[in-house]
Design brief:
Elements: E1 10-12, E2 15-17, H1 21-24, H2 36-42, H3 68-84, H4 86-99, E3 106-109, H5 114-129, H6 139-152, E4 155-162, E5 170-175, E6 192-193, E7 196-198, E8 204-209, E9 220-223, E10 227-231, H7 249-271, E11 272-278, H8 285-293, H9 315-325, E12 328-333, H10 348-364, H11 369-372, H12 380-413, E13 428-431, H13 440-453, H14 458-464, H15 469-490, H16 501-508, H17 512-528
Parallel strand pairs: 11-12
Antiparallel strand pairs: 1-2, 3-13, 4-5, 4-10, 6-7, 7-8, 8-9
Helix pairs in contact: 3-4, 7-10, 8-9
């Protein structure tokens, strides 16, 4: 028997059989002989089992894991739940708040030369107001759309447009994922895959994007250097983005079905207000009117507690009864039984199950449930959960930072006709928004301490709030000058008008000269003693 190293295991239904070891042990293979039985026991997770679900396992390149049809289906489901699931929408709002911030990402020129920084800052502020190729949105709105598409669709495409003759010559336009698709001529092509053209080494040469109003036009080719592909790949060789909600799509669909069933059961219990029992199961209009006049009470002398009406009823009389009671009236034959489900819906167990489903949805986005469904923000566990969520926000910020810096370079290069734009103009930093914290007071004290120690600057503190530190200083100077004017007019101390933490810190710091003098006096007293 010839030894085949790729045939150590032969499948037989749901088990593996081991070949005869004597056939394996030969003079040429004796030193390399593995312990087959021990190897099989080490990785029992690779064995098939009839007690577990059959998993679809494929080990291949990322481009083969998802066809264009599968990707569009996932995007469609993700968009549906983004529009109809309140928890998904809340997650998107939280991500935008802590990644982009309330006023968008702040870009600060960092050339090291004040004059160049001032020119770059003015150009950037002017560009943000008219950057949209369609002329509708400012830049901070567009970054929010990019981030939302990154989470919901898994990707988006930012095309760098050149508008010669306009005040803003370099603009941008956002295209959603379904606009990037292969043209008809690319059918059977090996270098155009899902709307993206590659060279022989797999490097991107360009994108085929459907331009125009409705997106039905034939895709147009855009060179790679004029397109920013906004996506966060998780595997080497991944060509297109995948919605971040994919691990939670089935969970959200199951949650929607369970919640709808519970709501339906609660409605049924709430609408059934009375049951009328008769021998025939129906009554006529005359008897109904008579019973309604008595308030649906039994006739005098009738020992039975429930009204018994013995004649057929028509549809009009049935509606009259329902209007009298304000709910649904059911008619049953005498002796028939009907058991109604308890009205305490949803139960406490079902509510706990709902909370568990919400946690699964949040875990798919690496977002703490406390931010979506808050209960308590105290304790070490909550702080650790918030810290892990903050790491997720920083990861998403790094993606958006790269996109914003590319847009910044494209924006400033469009002012080359007005200013001598060169590489020194393009240096800039993107300031992240305020960090997520479970203790605002402690975080604020830490920021003040780091600023007093010189670890951070006003640019760091103001940038986290989306403010310009130079503007803040100017406003403080104006306030101080006006306070000085009011102090002289009303003869009061300016400390009562404006709180200055620097003066407070100075007042709390002892004078060095006084300390030295006291030290000498103490030393002299010791000598005298």
């Amino acid at each position: 028997m010839n030894f085949n190293p790729f045939n150590w295991f032969s499948r037989s239904k749901n088990t593996y059989s081991i070949p005869n070891k004597q056939a394996v042990v030969t003079a040429s293979h004796r030193r390399a002989e593995p312990d087959i039985a021990k190897t099989e026991k080490l990785y029992t997770a690779a064995e098939r089992s009839k007690d577990r679900t059959n998993l679809r396992i494929y080990v291949q390149d990322a481009r083969y894991d998802m066809s264009e049809d599968v990707r569009i289906t996932l995007v469609g489901k993700s968009r549906y739940f983004a529009d109809n699931n309140p928890y998904f929408e809340k997650i998107l709002e939280v991500i935008d708040a802590f990644v982009n911030g309330a006023n968008g990402l702040k870009v600060v020129p960092s050339n090291g030369k004040p004059r160049i920084d001032e020119i770059a800052h003015r150009c950037w502020e002017e560009w943000q107001k008219g950057c949209d190729f369609l002329g509708r949105l400012k830049f901070h709105y567009m970054t929010s759309i990019m981030l939302r598409l990154l989470e919901v669709d898994g990707e988006c495409f930012v095309v760098l447009r050149e508008c010669i003759g306009e005040a803003i010559q370099h603009k941008i336009q956002i295209f959603e994922t379904h606009r990037c698709r292969s043209p008809q001529k690319a059918v059977g092509s090996n270098n155009i895959i899902d709307g993206i053209q590659y060279d022989a080494h797999g490097r991107v040469k360009g994108y085929y994007i459907s331009d125009g109003l409705d997106g039905s036009a034939e895709p147009k080719f855009f060179p790679a250097d004029r397109v920013i592909h906004v996506f966060a790949p998780t595997r080497a060789g991944q060509l297109r983005g995948i919605p971040a909600s994919v691990p939670a799509l089935n969970t959200m669909q199951d949650f929607e079905m369970i919640e709808s069933a519970e709501i339906l059961a609660a409605k049924v219990n709430a609408t059934k207000v009375a049951i009328v029992k008769t021998p025939e199961g129906e009554v006529d209009a005359e008897t109904v009117m008579s019973a309604m006049a008595r308030g649906m009470k039994p006739k005098e002398g009738d020992a039975k507690e429930e009204p018994i009406i013995k004649h057929p009823i028509d549809e009009q009389s049935h509606r009259m009864l329902e209007e009298q009671y304000g709910g649904k009236i059911m008619f049953m034959k005498s002796g028939a039984e009907w058991d109604q489900n308890p009205s305490e819906r949803p139960s406490s167990i079902m509510q706990q199950f709902w909370t568990y489903q919400i946690e699964k949805i949040c875990i798919a986005f690496n977002i703490s449930k406390l931010l979506i469904f808050p209960q308590s923000l105290q304790g070490t566990t909550a702080r650790a959960d918030i810290a892990a969520t903050e790491a997720t926000f920083k990861s998403l910020f790094s993606v958006m930072e790269d996109v914003v810096l590319k847009c910044y370079e494209w924006a400033l290069s469009g002012f080359a006709s007005k200013f001598p734009i060169n590489s020194s103009f393009l240096a800039a930093n993107v300031i992240p928004p305020r960090t997520l914290t479970a203790d605002v007071g402690k975080e604020s004290a830490k920021d003040l301490s780091e600023h007093a120690a010189g670890i951070t600057t006003l640019q760091d503190l103001c940038g986290a709030e989306g403010k310009d530190w130079k503007v803040v200083l100017q406003q403080r100077a104006e306030a101080a000058a006006y306070a000085e004017q009011v102090k002289n007019e009303y003869k009061v101390d300016d400390v009562r008008l404006i709180y200055n933490p620097l003066n407070t810190a100075k007042a709390q710091t002892p004078d060095k000269k006084e300390d030295l003098t006291q030290g000498k006096e103490t030393k002299g007293n010791n000598n005298n003693v």
